Structure formats: C-alpha cells, structure tokens
C-alpha cells in the first residue's frame, strides 16, 4: 500500500490514505540492535555506489596524552560514558552514568501561579513588561527555582609501574569501530591499550597488552568528587558506593555503585581496601560497570548493587575479543548506514587538533567528513533505546555543578541534539526523546493544572532527570510555555520519515495533550484579536532593556501551527477526536501570521521591535524556526517571507556561540546558500569553538553544536521539508566532488548521491514504504529501476515525479548525462 504524498509534505491540508510496513529484514535488525519497529536495515558501505571510506579516515589521533578534559576522548554505550586520557604513568577514565542526577522526585509547580495569571496577562497586554516579569518572579516561578544537575560518578585511575622515556606515542579514537586506543614504547617495551563502551554487554572494557611477557603491572582505584565509600567486594574487584547530592533542599536519592574487575593472563591480581593490583601479567582486561537506583523520574528505589553486578558478572566470562566483536558489530550496524567522502588532502595526515587550528587556512575537506561522522558517533554513543536523552553534554560531564546543570534545555538545545537522528539514518537514537515526552505528559500535566488551570501538559525552557516542567531560573529566561510543544512536533515528524502508524498511535495521546493545553490557555490579544500565548517570550531575547516577557512571539505561533497541524492530520489518520480536531483547526486559524518589519526583516515579535531590541546580534534567532527546522518558510512557497528571513540572517551576522553557529549553518543551507553555510562551518571549526577532541564549545562544552553541524552538512546535500526531495540544494563550492550513502528523507526514502564538478552525477533512491517520489535537481532526471525505465512526470523543468514500490531501488541520472555513471 502506498503512502499518500500529501501526508508527508503538506501538513496543513493532508488527508490520510494509509501507511505501509517497512521492508523485510526490519524485525531482524530490531532484534539485533534493540531498535523499534520503525528501523530499517540499511545497506552496508560495500553496497554503496562509489565504495567505502578508507581505514584511518575516521580517526581522531594525537601524539601525546590528554592534559585536560577537553583533550580526552569520549566513549559511550548510550548509558555509560567515559573520557579516556591516555596517560603513560597513569590512565584516567572519567565516568558517567546517565541517571546520576542530584536530588530526587519533586513537583516544582507553583500553586500561587494560577491566581496571579490574570494580572500577569493584564500587565503584559498593557505594555508593563518589567512589572509583569517582577510578578512572575515573585509568584509564578517553580519551586525550587533552579532544576537539578546531572553529575559525574567519578574517575577510575590506573597507575603503572613501568618507568623510562616514552617514544612512538599515539592516542586515537576510531569512530568506525567506536574504539579508543593508546600505543607507546617505554624501556624497550611496546604497550597498547584498547577501550570500548559496549552496548550489548553494558560494560566499559579496557584491554592492556605488551609485546614482552610479564610487562603489565598497575594499580587501579576509584576516586570521586561525590561522597563515596570504597571497598573490595572480592579478590579481583573494587567498588565505590555513593549517592547523588542534595540540592535546592531536595535530598539526594540516586544511589550508585561502580565496579571494576581485573582478569589477567599470567601474573597476579589482588584487591584490598578499594585498590586493585595487577602484577607481572602478560595481558589484562579491566571491566567497569555502574548501576544506579534510578528506575524512572518518580522512582529512585531500584537495586543499584544488582544492576552494577549483573553485567559485570556476565562479561567476566567472555573473552575480550568476543566483547569487542559484539560491540563493534552492534555499533557498526548503526554507524555504517551512512558513509561520506568529500575527498582528502595532505592536511588529513596531521593530528586532529592541528587540523582544527589550520582549517580556515588549509584545504581539508576530509575534516568536514570526520566532523560530520563524529556527530553521528556521539549520538550513537549517548542515546540508545531505553537510555536517557542526550543532555547538554550528551553523557560526558566531570563536574557536580556543570554549566547550565547539564539539563535538557528545550528552547533549542535538546531539539538540536536530535536533528541528525532521522536524516542520518539513526532513528533508534531518537527513541529516548519519545520516552521523555511520555514522562513530560505526566509531570507537565501537574504544572498545567496547578499553574494554568488547564488540561493537557506543558513544559517550559528546561527539563531535568526528574522531569521538572515549571518555569525555572528566572522570569527573563523561563517564561516560555512552548518547549514541550516543540518537542512534541517530533511525534509527527517521526511519522513523516517512517510512515510508522503504530508508533504514531502509541504516541498520539502525548501529541493530543500538548495541543489540549494550548486550546485551554491561548487568550485573545486585545490589540489584534488574534489568539496568543501569554505570558511568553522569544527565547532568552529582550525586546526592550531587561524585558523579554511578551504575548504571542513569532516562534510560539510557528511551533503551534506545526503541533496543531500534526495533531489534526494524526487524529484524522487514526480516526480519533473529531470534535477536538475541528476546534484545533479553528484555533490554528486565529494564530497571528508571520509579519515583515519595516527593515524588510521577519519580525521576532508581534510589534516591530527588532530595530530597538538591545542585542542586535543575539545568539538565539528563534523566529526563524519557520525556516528551520520547520517548513513554513520556503523559497517557492513563501518567497516574501523567505526574503525576510534572509534579511534577518544578514542583520544578525555570523558571530555566535557554538550551537548558534550550528543553527546558522542550517539556516543558510535552507536559504540555499551553501557558500555562506560552509563559511560558518569554518567559523565553528576553530580552536575558539571546537576543542582538541572535536567537542563543540559554547564555550564551555555543549554537545548541541556537534549535532547541529552534522545536521547542517546533511542539509547541503539533501532536503525533504518542502514537499520534495531536493538533491544538492546548498552544495558549497568548496566541495565540488563527493558522494554520500544512506541519508533518509521524509516520505520514507533512503538516498545515495554522487556529484562531480558541483553537479549531480548519480542518485540511488531506495523506497521504504512506497511513497510517490518528487525529486528536484538542477536538471531533468531519467529514472531506471530493475533495469527498466520508469515512467516519470516533469511538472517543472527541474522536477521529476514517479511512483515507487516498497523495497525497490531507483537510479536517477541527468537525462543529458552519460548512462554509466556511478
């Protein structure tokens, strides 16, 4: 059964026509990777037209150990994370587990809020913004005021007995196998370490070998900034036990246990008083496991000791070669779905940190590929089905009070973390977001009821491990009720990429609740008669000195159009809520339209305040949500708004924090200006914005810039938001030749592209669910499937449309080009 194209591409007008299942092999892939049913098995790189990435091209490497945290190399299995320093006298593994949050379950909803809401709204509509913010600060903010931080477990430190000068040192992270390694020679002995974070076996494993028997000797011990107790549970194991901190008056309740066990070939192993000793071994494997008592956001009473012990005991009976193979097979099943080749120069031979320093002045297209795939590596490593979502630092954090508490900041950062998930063929990695949405529909219902007297659910600009949903921090930043709605748009977007009707049905109540809240809380703007959010704000941006609170900012209206449209079509498709659907359509029609200001810019607020806003180059450009990630502003569909969005981008300039630059890379790609977008990637790939280990710097480190850049590079090569698959829409002139395999487009298509001299040479389109393909390129295309020409329509000279069959592959080439390309 084919999927009606309108379902995927025209949210405001589509009518459901049914959904098809995925091609055969999906169930097997899901069983092997822990994926949900929306996951399809991609071809391996060997199946890609144009071949594979060569060994070593996907490696970060350095000629010295890490001297600081931002030089260490990250590994992770979704739940467990480690930063590997690679020292020769000592090795440090800084450890995280994704449920170690300070405090415990709490409800931050402020019961004073509801009675003060009418006066807050009156002050906003009267233009008394400072007074409105003051009242919000005193009566409407959550309790506690700040949400709780994500925290480190601590470190495992190894101290080696070998002495002498070190030579031939190399430290690397191979992101094709998700393996960190260290190699060096000392006193005539060559030592090697390999470190993996295994998803199948749920342990971190460190393998130590040497080319001379009996050379492996070290001690190992945990330490932590947490209050912990060390012990030796048995003769080959050490442990620490601790509890997440008490913060903001909320008692720490997440208990955790970290275990490390040594298994050696030759020599001796001993454990006493929390210290592990390996002496004279030929080789050794060190296994690390961490368990916590966190079961869900309302239950921190699980058995952390059993959760730590079970995977450790199971892995202890498995040879390292088997652990490594399970890990690599599992990881590559995800990672190798997409390959990217942009060419290479001699710059690729340099250590990674030197390449970042030189990128602006040296031709290094392969660093673009490496940075792109590093983003995919990080997403696989910090977000798997059943884990917590990636927070502001993924899972990698060495502090008890990290910047911005490592929360889920949902006014851009968390959403940006997941932009690469569907388009770079990592749909499984998106699953934790949907689990968190289910949680927020529960905790956010309390906030909606208590503070707004509303049905449904709401979440503001931050969420933590306990799913706090009330306004937090202060009114200037926290008075934004649309964060949960933005996250909820993922539910419909997932359907656009997959056609998975059962997943949509499962998540539909969450989408419905997000809409229900705004049906209850939108109010009439007395000056315009439109229905608006109030109080709200354009995230983190003042419209007058020290005043951000307003009514109906542009971004809110854009988000609400998307979440309302998704709900309307989903409810029709599923045969649910006819009356509410009609109401949602009516309310959507009363939202304020986007406006063009006196400077020709897209207005950020209902009033034309852009010219007087205190920060003309503010890092947030929230009102361009309609350009990206939404599809409400397009070159052909809304040319006047498209021009206004471009004017806004020119006004804001190219400066910005790491994540802000990453969003601008996506904006300029949507504006179809690859040269400008590439320039901003160059601004990101500098030591000021990219750490030696390729972590994005706000500064400090925030992982969203990594993910946003990966998304932006994808947008250069393939866009599918405007009702068509647009091939090479924003290809930068600096990258005239290349190929990519395995991208995913809305409508359920998997796409391979080859280009030469800045023109499309070959495209392979695999149809997952039988949607009609509408493809835009710079030239008319001819289409072949199963060795035969496919009937096509050409409604425009550069538009090619044809029916597809689920599971079939279609080859598209320029109609005036040679037939044998690719």
Automatic annotation (TrEMBL):
Show the PROSITE patterns listed in the entry: TAT
Limits of the Glycosyl hydrolase family 95 N-terminal domain: 60-295
Indicate the segments forming the Alpha fucosidase A-like C-terminal domain, all copies.
719-812
- In this protein, which residues make up the domain named Glycosyl hydrolase family 95 catalytic? 320-717
GO process terms (BP) = carbohydrate metabolic process
Q: Which SUPFAM superfamilies match?
A: Six-hairpin glycosidases
- Biased composition (Low complexity) is annotated at 20-52
- Region (Disordered) spans which residues? 20-55
Q: Which UniProt keywords apply?
A: Signal
Query: Per its UniProt entry, which superkingdom is the organism in?
Result: Bacteria
Record-level Gene Ontology MF annotations? alpha-L-fucosidase activity
Which stretch is the leader sequence?
1-29
Write down the PANTHER family for this protein, in alphabetical order.
Answer: ALPHA-L-FUCOSIDASE 2
The protein here is known as Uncharacterized protein
Q: What organism, scientifically named, is this protein from?
A: Streptomyces bingchenggensis (strain BCW-1)
């Amino acid at each position: 059964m084919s999927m009606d194209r309108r379902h995927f591409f025209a949210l405001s007008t589509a009518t459901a026509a049914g959904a098809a299942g995925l091609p055969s092999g999906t169930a097997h892939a899901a069983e092997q990777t822990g994926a949900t049913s929306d996951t399809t098995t991609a071809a391996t790189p060997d199946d890609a037209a144009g071949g594979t990435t060569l060994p070593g091209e996907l490696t970060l490497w350095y000629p010295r150990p890490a001297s600081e945290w931002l030089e260490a190399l990250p590994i992770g299995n979704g739940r467990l994370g480690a930063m590997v320093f690679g020292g020769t006298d000592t090795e440090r593994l800084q450890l995280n587990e994704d449920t170690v949050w300070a405090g415990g379950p709490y409800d931050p909803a402020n019961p004073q809020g509801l009675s003060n809401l009418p006066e807050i709204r009156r002050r906003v509509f009267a233009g008394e913004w400072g007074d409105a913010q003051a009242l919000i600060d005193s009566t409407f903010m959550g309790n506690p005021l700040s949400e709780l931080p994500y925290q480190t477990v601590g470190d495992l430190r190894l101290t080696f007995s070998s002495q002498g000068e070190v030579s031939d040192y190399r430290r690397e992270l191979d992101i094709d196998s998700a393996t960190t390694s260290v190699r060096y020679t000392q006193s005539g002995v060559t030592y090697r370490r390999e470190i993996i974070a295994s998803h199948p076996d749920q342990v971190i494993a460190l393998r130590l070998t040497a080319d001379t028997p009996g050379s492996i000797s070290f001690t190992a011990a945990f330490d932590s900034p947490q209050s912990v107790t060390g012990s030796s549970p048995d003769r080959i194991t050490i442990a620490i036990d601790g509890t997440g901190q008490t913060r903001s008056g909320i008692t720490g309740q997440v208990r955790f246990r970290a275990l490390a066990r040594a298994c050696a070939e030759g020599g001796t192993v001993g454990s006493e008083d929390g210290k592990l000793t390996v002496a004279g071994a030929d080789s050794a494997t060190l296994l690390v496991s961490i368990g916590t008592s966190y079961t869900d956001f309302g239950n921190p009473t699980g058995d952390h000791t059993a959760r730590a012990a079970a995977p450790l005991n199971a892995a202890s009976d498995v040879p390292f070669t088997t652990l490594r193979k399970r890990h690599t097979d599992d990881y590559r099943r995800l990672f190798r779905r997409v390959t990217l080749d942009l060419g290479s120069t001699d710059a690729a031979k340099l250590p990674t940190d030197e390449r970042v320093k030189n990128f602006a002045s040296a031709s290094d297209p392969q660093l673009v590929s490496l940075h792109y795939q590093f983003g995919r590596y990080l997403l696989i490593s910090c977000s798997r089905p059943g884990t917590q979502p990636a927070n502001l630092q993924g899972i990698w954090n060495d502090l008890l009070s990290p910047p911005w508490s490592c929360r889920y900041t949902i006014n851009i950062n968390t959403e940006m973390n997941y932009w690469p998930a569907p388009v770079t063929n990592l749909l499984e990695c998106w699953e934790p977001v949907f689990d968190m949405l289910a949680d927020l529909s529960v905790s956010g219902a309390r906030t909606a009821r208590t503070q707004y007297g509303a049905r449904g659910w709401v979440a503001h600009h931050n969420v933590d491990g306990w799913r706090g949903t009330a306004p937090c921090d202060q009114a200037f930043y926290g008075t934004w009720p649309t964060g949960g709605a933005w996250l909820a748009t993922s539910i419909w977007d997932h359907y656009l990429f997959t056609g998975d009707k059962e997943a949509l049905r499962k998540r539909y109540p969450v989408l419905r609740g997000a809409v229900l809240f705004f049906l209850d809380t939108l109010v009439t703007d007395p000056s315009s008669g439109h229905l608006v959010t109030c109080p709200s704000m354009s995230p983190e941006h003042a419209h007058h000195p020290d005043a951000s609170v307003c009514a109906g900012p542009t971004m809110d209206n854009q988000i609400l159009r998307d979440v309302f449209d998704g709900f309307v079509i989903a409810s029709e498709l599923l045969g649910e809520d006819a009356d509410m659907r009609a109401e949602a359509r009516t309310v959507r029609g009363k939202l304020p339209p986007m406006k063009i200001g006196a400077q020709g810019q897209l207005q950020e607020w209902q009033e034309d305040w852009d010219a007087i806003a205190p920060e003309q180059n503010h890092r947030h450009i929230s009102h361009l949500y309609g350009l990206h990630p939404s599809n409400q502003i397009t070159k052909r569909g809304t040319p006047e708004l498209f021009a206004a969005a471009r004017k806004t981008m020119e006004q804001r300039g190219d400066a910005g924090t790491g994540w802000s630059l990453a969003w601008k890379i996506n904006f300029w790609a949507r504006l179809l200006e690859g040269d400008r977008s590439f320039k901003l990637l160059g601004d990101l790939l500098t030591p000021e914005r990219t750490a030696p280990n390729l972590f994005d710097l706000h500064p400090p480190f925030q992982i969203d810039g990594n993910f946003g850049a990966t998304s932006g590079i994808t947008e250069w090569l393939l866009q599918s938001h405007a009702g068509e698959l647009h091939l090479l829409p924003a290809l930068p002139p600096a990258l005239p030749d290349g190929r990519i395999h395995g991208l995913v487009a809305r409508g359920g298509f998997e796409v391979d592209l080859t280009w030469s001299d800045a023109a499309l040479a070959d495209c392979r389109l695999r149809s997952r669910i039988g949607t009609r393909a509408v493809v835009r390129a710079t030239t008319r295309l001819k289409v072949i499937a199963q060795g035969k020409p496919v009937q096509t329509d050409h409604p425009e000279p550069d538009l090619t449309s044809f029916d597809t069959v689920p599971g079939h592959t279609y080859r598209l080439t320029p109609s005036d080009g040679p037939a044998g390309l690719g």
